[in-house]
Each structure stands twice: as C-alpha cells, then as structure tokens.
Amino acid sequence: MWKLFIAAFMSQALGTECNFHIHRLENPEVEMNVSEVIEHWGYPAEEYEVETGDSYIITITRIPRGRRDNNMAAQRPVVFLQHGLLATSITWVSNLPNNSLAFILADAGFDVWLGNSRGSTYSLKHAYLPIDSKEYWAFSFDEMARYDLPASIDYIVKKTGQKIYYVGHSQGTLIGFLAFSTLPKMAQKVKTFFALAPIFTIRHVKSIPLRLIFSLRQPLFKFLMGEKDFLPETALNKILATTVCDNEITGVLCGKIIFSLTGFDPKNLNMSRIDVYVAHFPGGTSAQNILHYLQGFYESRPILHAFDWGSAKENFDHYNQTFPPKYNVSEMKVPIALWSGEKDLLADPKDVSELIPQIRSKIYHKTLPTYNHLDFIFGIDAPQDIYYEIIKMIKNTL
Questions:
Q1: Where residue 301 falls among pLDDT bands split at 50, 70, 90?
Q2: Would the pLDDT of 245 be above 60?
Q3: Are 330 and 302 in contact (CB under 8 A)?
Q4: Cys-Cys with 175: which of 145, 156, 162, 382 at CB 3.0–4.6 Å?
Q5: What mean pLDDT do residues 116-120 have?
C-alpha cells in the first residue's frame, strides 16, 4: 500500500510525465543483486549462507580483496558491515567505488564482509518455517542481536581465523549494542565497534512517517500492518526506479518521498544514483520489528527493553520473568567510535546525547552538523568525514 501511494502521489504531483521528462541513462545496478553489483565494479564477491541458532538462514557477502590486489595468500584485517533498518547489504555498495564504504575498505587492504538481517531481501530462508507463516515473522531486533549477529561473526572468525572490526549503521548499531553488552564471549571477537548514526532509544525521533506509525496503539498497529512482513523489496521498487525516478526532475521528488522515513538532502547525494537507491530500498523487515520500535517510542526513560509479548505468561515463556528485561549498554566493553548527525531524523541528537554517557568504552565521538540518517552511507562527503577516519583508526591498532 505504501509503495502504491508513492506511485500515485508522484503521478498526481508531476502530471503528464512528458512535460518534464529529462532522461538520463539507467544505472545497470538497478537490476542487479549485491554480488552482481560488486562484480560489476571489478571486485571479487563470495556468498555464504549461515544458519542461526533458531534456524533462520542468513546470507553474508564477502569482498576478499580490492580490485588491484591479486595476492590471494595475504592476510587482511577483517571488517564486518551491518546495515540499518529496512536496508540490506547492498547499501554499502550502492555508490561509485570511490564513495562506497565496502569498496573503499577493500581497496585499502581489508577483507570486507557484508551482513544481512533476517527478513530482509537476502535473508528470507528458514530451515523449516515457511516464509508466509506468522511464526516465521515473529522476530524483532532482539533476535537479530541474539542470533543473527553471533552466527555471522562466529562464521567469519572461523573462516578467517581473525577477530573482526564491526561497522554498524542505524539498526546495525542497535543490534551491536545489544549483542556486545549481553554476549561477552561473542564481544571478545570484536576489536572495535564503529557506530554510524547510532540508535539505542528513539523517543525523540523526528521522522514524520515513523512518528505516525509509532503513534498507533498496538492493537491498531497489528490490524493495519498485519503480523508478517513490512515493506519488503518488490518488483515495484524496480518500476519506480526505471520509470518514475529516472530523470533529473522526478529524481528529486522521488528521493524526497522514498527517503521521507529518514530525511533527504540532495546536496550531499549523488543524484545520478537515485534509481539505484530506490531499486533496493526498502528491503523489508518484520512487522514485529517495527512494533518493537513502537514500544520503545513510548518509553519514558532512555532505557531499552526486550520485546513485550503482550502478557505476563508469554513474557515468562520467553524470558523466565513476567516483564521484558532491560538492556544495559554500559555493560558493553568493546571499544567504540561513534559518528552522529545534527540533522538526523531517526538517530535524533537528543537520543544520542542520552546514549553517549551510558557508554563506558567510548574512544571517539564526532558530530556532523549537516548529516541526516542516510548521509552516513550515501553521502558524497562521507569518505572524507567518516570512512578515512575509520581506516586510520583500524590501521593504528594493527
């Protein structure tokens, strides 16, 4: 319904397309999956399926070296990138090679791995649950932290024989906070945590679409949104990218609508890549995951709880107590560097300011005055403002 609204809105706003159409060539990555995008730019790509402790099957993608590095035997430091809410691993390679973090890291001499959370485009399998069942979609970021992240990190550590450097964006930071503060043995496999647009609580979120969703009470949310998937990637993504967002004028409007969840600033985006962004975003999650954020929106204090299953009995079945346990980010011992944006509609500066004092292992925090939520992964200035700093920090620990 949401995507149909976008199409209808753009048609209404633009009138007859031929009046405004200024064509540009379609980027071929619109029709590609993440591995095809990587290989399109001349990098090697490897895919691995990993089964989690609760039998979800997630895909992780590897860029083992840069374009010009043919030394197969060389051991490279390992960096693991975890995407944000409604995104997938393709976000890390959606820009040109000199502007995409995954490519920049590979060319700088790193072994780069890209994670995918359950319920997103590249992680839709389960060992026995059918994808159209309510049981399959009964998860939130709790399970991503408890199962997805440990399975991914354990696989990478076993495969490479090395500890990892972890980079998370948005929800990727959230599940990092949860996993590294509650699973100390797993946290010992992480050298440094680099958090882009860090999220722990969302009480001050300014995104109007999300505030509208979060304003719903749980019964109404379930009635309107269902209890299965939420904004999956479909064929309509490609239709919008190739027929609506493929020219200079509609591209700006398309970006404003598609990125209304997170904020949109065309001055820091390569506008010739809008069709690529739209083709692969949103990438889906579960309605229960959004419901968990909704529960956090109503918290009166900057403390995050595990998912509330709705009754004392169900909570007891899941947690052995009648109420959801609290997460305590101060328990995290992994060294962490953070970058946050003053214009961020999701990782609001007020929420970030409440988070920072709770982190005892902080080694660095940089505030970027003009950055919104997606500038951290799509921004033209992101390499100079963030990525090269990450590379320098990593190399200083080798």
A1: confident
A2: yes
A3: no
A4: 145
A5: 98
Active-site option among 35, 100, 120, 170 = 170
Query: Which pair of structure tokens corresponds to residue 131?
Result: 């994808």
Q: What is the mean pLDDT of the chain?
A: 89
Instruction: Tell me the helix, strand and coil percentages in the chain, rounded to 5.
Output: 45, 15, 40
State the catalytic residue, choosing from 107, 111, 142, 344. 344
CB-based burial label for 97 (10 Å; 0-12, 13-18, 19+): middle
In the residue annotation, 170 being an active-site residue is answered as yes
Buried b / exposed e across 314-337, counting CB within 10 Å, b at 16+? ebeeebeeeebeebebeebebbbb
* 181 is an active site residue: no
Other Cβ atoms less than 10 A from the Cβ of 356: the count is: 14
Residue 250 has pLDDT above 80, yes or no: no
Q: Which amino acid is at 286?
A: S
Q: Which among 35, 373, 375, 385 is annotated as catalytic?
A: 373
- How high is the pLDDT of residue 2? 42
Instruction: Compute how many other C-beta atoms are within 10 angstroms of the C-beta atom of residue 274.
Output: 28
The phi-psi region of residue 284 (left if phi > 0; otherwise alpha if psi is between -120 and 50; otherwise beta) is: left
What is the model's pTM? Answer: 0.93
Would residue 17 be called left, alpha or beta, if left means φ above 0 and alpha means ψ between -120 and 50 degrees? Answer: alpha
Q: pLDDT tens across 25-84, in order?
A: 689 999 999 999 999 999 999 999 999 999 999 999 999 999 987 776 678 999 999 999
Q: Where are the beta strands (DSSP E) in the chain?
A: 46-51, 56-63, 78-82, 111-114, 125-126, 164-169, 190-196, 229-230, 285-286, 304-305, 326-327, 336-341, 362-368
344: annotated active-site residue = yes
At residue 136, what are phi and psi to the nearest 5 degrees? -60, -40
Residues with Cβ within 8 Å of residue 64, at least 6 apart in sequence: 44, 46, 76, 111, 112
The residues facing 24 across adjacent strands are none
Give residue 58's Cα distance to chain centre: 15
- In the three-class reduction of DSSP (H, G, I as helix; E, B as strand; rest coil), residue 165 is classed as strand
